[in-house]
Amino acid sequence: MAPKLLALSSLSSICPFPIPNSSPSSLNIYKFHTPKPTLIFCKSTEPQTISESEPEGYGAAAPTRGDIYLQRQQVVAASSSVLATTKKKKKKKDNIFKISNLAPCCYGCGAPLHTSEVDAPGYVDQETYDLKKKHHQLRKILCGRCRLLSHGHMITAVGGNGGYSGGKQFVTAEELREKLSHVRHEKALIVKLVDIVDFNGSFLARVRDLAGANPIILVITKVDLLPKDTDLNCVGDWVVEATMKKKLNVLSVHLTSSKSLVGISGVVSEIQKEKKGRDVYILGSANVGKSAFINALLNTMPYKDPVAASARKYKPIQSAVPGTTLGPIPIDAFLGGEKLYDTPGVHLHHRQAAVIHVEDLPTLAPQSRLRGQVFPSSGQNLDSQIANRMRSSGLSGLSIFWGGLVRIDVLKVLPETCLTFYGPKALQIHVVPTEEADEFYQKELGVLLTPPTGKEKADDWMGLETKRQLQIKYEDIERPTCDVAISGLGWFSVVPVNKSAGIFNPVSEVKAGELTFIVHVPKPVEIFVRSPMPVGKAGGRWYDYRELTEEELEVRPKWFF
């Protein structure tokens, strides 16, 4: 059947959308007469916008699963980029805020500068402060306290738990610890210092509370104070063994001397290798030698990092007073822009320095190489009563005073047993029968038994209130059985049979047994019993290297000197 042409007037009843102006010649509409529903086809030469939804099969293809996955990945990537940018901006603002709020500090001790209190750390006269401020040189000022310390004056500033008696105190030990609390949240490299003379007392077994999960380099200081002819190979192995027992994972162990620069170059190389863009923090207990160590670093680092050469002009002050550094001191010492931080020492209440008067502090610091004081020995001048008693029963029934700080009651030992003391030369050894020890201590404290020095300080002295009984088993008489370390002072080694003293009797030789002592110290001071440190020429002969398994070799830190 031929299509039939429709008129425009009847189009509106068929098409639901408006028709633009067109002549009949430009628009041909046909109607097919079929039994099926009528289909209308509209064709126009002008573009038309149709608001009706397209019939099924005429629209865009539905997205595939791959397209959906790609779209999601693009959204996630875009959101991550936005979050990273926002976080970076926020971190940058936080850093700017933190730096801008840091008050200028003394480069010698880290105390905030001020012009108000003359005796306080950080004091600078008003004229100097104004002049340095005008020229933007406030970070190049040394406060009045640091100038006095550099000339040998003993000026303490730390009080509270772990602080010091005597003198004026401006900050507590707890406040100094709080200044270190942020380190555990930083991405940093920790260099932990330990004094070899006070190894147990200065070790900071809970250093992870300050350092967090940051890597640690363990540095042993003052090895130049060890007795002559000491084999540092044995000492290094002994230190690593002691560190492993404390379950403190460290990168490496270094034996150093800030005075003679022994081992310092090895520490510099290790820092350069491990810092990896992080700041470096020097941590340790009070008076362990952090400032002296940093000065030694700055004297050695210019050979590998030229930036350290300019930092040597404004370096931290050194002093025998514990608590010299009162705040973190940033030092520009690396070419990459990282900071080297000298930090306040951690003040520990269990060390001898926390209980004696400030004027007696220098007596606790050895100034020269240690020499073991063997007691008894054939060359000592002893009271005839004491000498006769020692010939018959050795040290049993006697009390040995190490200055006014330590008393050792010998309850049960072999006739040939001797004690070798390693510590400050200022502390003299005195021996009396145990039944006369209390009276002797009360009478001679501040006179023969020092520190405390003088009767005035002795009247305020708390006494030796802590008592600890030690039962020491021995299996080999050819070597020391153990060391008994006094926190903040030194140690004495226990030798079951001393053949070199000239009093050895072969008849009484015993293969194994037990020795008993009672050690008296001031109340907060701690006593440590440890394996003997191999010092002196004899230490190299009797020290045994332990055989290690392959697993131990993998986790055991290397040591250097």
From TrEMBL:
GO terms for molecular function: GTP binding; GTPase activity. InterPro entries: G_CP_dom (IPR030378), GTP-bd (IPR006073), NOA1 (IPR044229), NOA1/YqeH-like_C (IPR048422), P-loop_NTPase (IPR027417). Residues 173-349 form the CP-type G domain. PROSITE patterns: G_CP. CDD domains: YqeH. Pfam families: MMR_HSR1 (PF01926), YqeH-like_C (PF21516). This is Nitric oxide synthase-associated protein I. It comes from Solanum tuberosum. The lineage of its organism: Eukaryota, Viridiplantae, Streptophyta, Embryophyta, Tracheophyta.
